[in-house]
Design a protein that fits this description.
- It contains 2 helices and 2 strands.
- With 92 residues, it is mainly alpha-helical.
- The protein has a domain of 58 residues: Orthogonal Bundle (Helix Hairpins).
- It has a two-stranded antiparallel sheet.
- Helix 1 runs antiparallel to helix 2.
- The longest helix is centred in the middle third of the chain and has 36 residues.
- The radius of gyration is 19 Å and the shape is elongated.
- The termini are far apart.
- About 11% of the residues have low confidence.
């Protein structure tokens, strides 16, 4: 599969297909390696697109001047200003 011009959703869908194929155990060693290599390329594309979108969102937030917006952190929901986690009622 050619990776040029592929959008985020297509890359993610193809990654899911590759994971299913690799986990099935039905691929030969060579096919597994090629699938793995393709997956690495797709991950790179997804990471680049996510990074771009994240920077764009941060720029838009700065333009609004709204410091009350929240950022989701990997370890839980935290306030964008780092002042702690949100109570359940605020996080929805």
């Amino acid at each position: 599969m050619s990776l040029s011009g592929i959008d985020f959703e297509q890359a993610l869908q193809r990654l899911e297909e590759l994971v299913r194929l690799l986990e099935s155990g039905e691929l030969s060693l060579e096919e597994s390696l090629k699938s793995f290599e393709e997956g690495i390329g797709l991950i790179r594309i997804c990471n680049e697109r996510l990074s771009f979108v994240e920077k764009r969102v941060h720029s838009l937030i700065e333009l609004t001047g709204n410091t009350d917006l929240y950022v989701l952190q990997q370890e839980g929901e935290e306030r964008a200003d780092g002042s702690g986690t949100l109570p359940d009622s605020e996080s929805k």
